[in-house]
Amino acid sequence: MAAGGAVAAASECRLLPYALHKWSSFSSTYLPENILVDKPNDQSSRWSSESNYPPQYLVLKLERPAIVQNITFGKYEKTHVCNLKKFKVFGGMNEENMTELLSSGLKNDYNKETFTLKHKIDEQMFPCRFIKIVPLLSWGPSFNFSIWYVELSGIDDPDVVQPCLNWYSK
């Protein structure tokens, strides 16, 4: 069995605490930290990029290395031109060497959306410390990008993550 496989099967997927580490830009009061709080009825509770000129991004730093399995995006209570029509998510143990975990888009509605992230290489789970969200296209042409709320979930149990770290660093 792959390193950490037996323990991983018994480990629960849970919310993974993170902090905002780096960002490309932000507009006015739409600070990156706003994505930490889910307030779907507050139009100001979001990160908004200062432009739609690439690259725009947010880099999240997990409290500790984890197997990041899912990302959930919360949204405003109504459709919004700044919602992400296309985006990519990258992850890795450092900012310079990240793997693409997801390429997708959000529906332009008010429902939270959860996506499964790539978290295995050749059937082996790999750890991440950093997650980078890269908006590519908003629903309104030439509008800046907004992210309202982000939740990461996965496994951060050291008994599971450490064997994966050992495998990954070989």
Strand proportion: 35-45%
Order of helices and strands: HEEEEEEEEEEEEH
Count up the helices: 2
What form results from the Cα inertia axes?
A: elongated
The first-level CATH class is given as Mainly Beta
Mean pLDDT comes to: 93
Radius of gyration, rounded?
16 Å
Descriptive terms for the model:
single chain, 170 residues, mainly beta, Jelly Rolls, eight-stranded antiparallel sheet, two-stranded antiparallel ribbon, elongated
Question: What does this protein structure show overall?
Answer:
- The protein has helices at 5-10, 158-168; strands at 14-15, 18-23, 47-48, 58-74, 84-94, 97-104, 113-116, 120-121, 124-125, 128-138, 146-147, 149-155.
- By secondary structure, it is mostly beta strands.
- The chain has a single domain, classed as Sandwich (Jelly Rolls).
- The strands form three sheets. Strands 1, 2, 4, 5, 6, 7, 10 and 12 form an eight-stranded antiparallel sheet that branches. It has a two-stranded antiparallel ribbon with strand order 3-11.
- It is elongated and about 45 Å long.
- The chain starts with a helix and ends with a helix.
- Pfam families: Muskelin_N (PF06588).
